[in-house]
Amino acid sequence: MQFYRVCGLSVASEIGLPGLIAGAPERTPQVRIRRGPVPEDLPEPSACGPTWQIAGKQFLLRIPDIARFLLNDGSEIVVAPETDAGAADIPIFLLGTVFGILLHQREQVVLHASAVRVNGRAVLFCGSSGAGKSTLAAALAQRGYPLVTDDFCTLTVDDQDRKQAAPLVHPDGRQLKLWAQAIERLDLAQQRGERVRASLEKYYVEPGDVFTEPLALGAVYALREARPPHAPGIDKPNVVDAALLLRRNAYRPLLVRRLDQKANYFHAATTIANVAGIFHLTRALDFAKMPEVIGSLERHWLELRLTEKAA
Amino acid sequence: MTKTIWLASYPKSGNTWFRMLVANLSATDGNPVDINDLPERGSIASARGPFDHLLLIDSGLLTFDEIDGLRPLVYEELARGVDDDEYDAPHDTPAVRFVKVHDAYTLTPNGQPLLAGRRGADAAIVIVRDPRDVAPSLANHNHGSIDDAITFMNDDDAGFCVRTNRQHSQFRQKLPGWSGHIASWLEQTDIPLHLIRYEDLRADTVDTLRAALDFAGRPAADAEIRRAVGYADFAELRRQEEEKGFSERPRPHLGGRFFRRGTAGGWRDGLSIGQVARIEAAHAPMMRRLRYEPAGATPLARTA
């Protein structure tokens, strides 16, 4: 059994999870991961898609030729490999989509986002797969803003004092995942680790500083490619659009509806809009423009008083 | 139940123009629809978003072949009327959902039709264009030379979004040569097919469009069709692109235009004799089948 922290949760796992820092044993971990039999179907599912089924507090996900995953009430993941060849690829899916679903089951606000630390606060970059989250986080890490989390990110919103308290972001020290082209263009070959899967030119990249303390949220940016009618820049959508934007950038928007979490996201969006801010960051998907994008973010952080002008 | 109709074509063959025509059928407020704000929602079949959204699997962790193996599940789901995204605004369900697709009609590694056969769509409208006019348009699209575009059109292993060192915004689309691509669609027997020649759509837009709409099961009144044809006139599309840009242009930061010439037969003053010969050597049988007469050894009708 190995012990980890994932998005602030204590995890005990029979399956090693590369890319995470192993921690001290816990007597009562919040999440257990074990191998075991997983059915092909759940009895009387209340909702299902081509690769998943929901029945009560159970969630079944099938990744064909890799494994089936049964999630029980947000506290247990049972894994049944489908093929011997696929077994090596289980951890990457476990830590990605499977854990993301588990966080939805736990009714946490989980965003499809990478985050960096800016002057002690977490700044999030949201977007769907391919939007450039990890690449931007890597470029910012090079510029001295350490990585907080990659790919997805949980927020805890304090109910007691919603006008004042910024939601907390829980880092888990996971490594970045970057494609070969991004590693080359950002000159990160020195930090390149293993391939995330043997069949992909996508690699783990050492993030540099690693820390595990929760951080107060500083700002949320939804990434958008500059295409007509959207010109490059940073803008602030109105609160209604911001709430929708947050929900659309949930790690799996489909589950927000299916697991009846809309109210949670709406509440989170109002809080974030009050204490931190939700913005669009529109930019060309072009490595050559990266310094310009970082420059505009740094100016924006000054405006937001996230940072102070150097003396 | 909304019908799904593939709008299938080799790239640069009039697919987007056809979609603009259809979109303008519902432009009832006295203005052409905004080219960046088409009322239809279903984007291109190779889009990544619906896959990740509906399967809950990160396609960025899958190989091209693994993705292809799962794509039929997405098309079945969408054809059943499942939303491809999460929006709040209720949207009316149209009688027909036209979905652009550039993929050749191929089978997955498991032997399933990539586009899920009859479970993925009710029928297909296939739009073809003289390959000698496709070549210069494709060169512009790819920011490359005409010779490179011809090499691409003659390559049985060609495709869009094929690089493995990055994540393309769309899935790999197999484009096994201009002839091979069209043959894959004409020879599939899973779904009924209606063939449109770009040249006929140019020459007689109203009648060609009407026939396609009748086939698709979305008949329109004559006045509606005439108005749409006016609104989606090539000059209007170009005017809008010049004024505000076009969201579907690939790699927007490289500049250039999507709506370029929109002509039929422009190759006569745009291609060299050698370029024409290369295209015809590779594609003469399919060209003849589609009534694109190869110039062959006869001198080009080129005016001084």
Radius of gyration of chain A: 19 Å
Structural class of chain A: alpha+beta
Please count the helical segments of chain A: 8
Protein structure class of chain B: alpha/beta
Please give the share of residues in helix of chain A: 25-40%
> Span from first to last CA of chain B?
57 Å
Domain unit count of chain A:
2
The DSSP helix count of chain B reads 12
Structure explained in plain terms:
The complex is a heterodimer of chains A (311) and B (304). In chain A, β5 and β6 form a beta hairpin. Chain A folds into 2 domains: 105 residues, no CATH class; 194 residues, Rossmann fold, CATH 3.40.50. Chain A starts with a strand and ends in an 8-residue tail after the last helix. In chain A, the strands form 3 sheets. In chain A, strands 9, 10, 11, 12, 13, 14, 18, 19 and 20 form a 9-stranded mixed beta sheet that branches. The longest helix of chain A is centred in the N-terminal third of the chain and has 16 residues. By secondary structure, chain A is an alpha+beta fold. Chain A is 26% helix and 31% strand. The model of chain A has no long low-confidence stretch (mean pLDDT 92). Chain B has a single domain, classed as P-loop containing nucleotide triphosphate hydrolases (Rossmann fold), CATH 3.40.50.300. The model of chain B has no long low-confidence stretch (mean pLDDT 92). Chain B is α/β, with parallel strands linked by helices and 304 residues long. Chain B is built from 12 helices and 6 strands. In chain B, 40% of the residues lie in helices and 9% in strands. In chain B, 42% of the residues are buried. In chain B, the strands form 2 sheets. Chain B has a 4-stranded parallel beta sheet, with helices on both faces. A two-stranded antiparallel sheet of chain B has the order 4-5. In chain B, α1 crosses α10, α2 crosses α3 and α5 crosses α6. Chain B is globular, with a radius of gyration of 19 Å. Chains A and B meet through α2, α4, α5 and α6 of A and α2 and α3 of B.
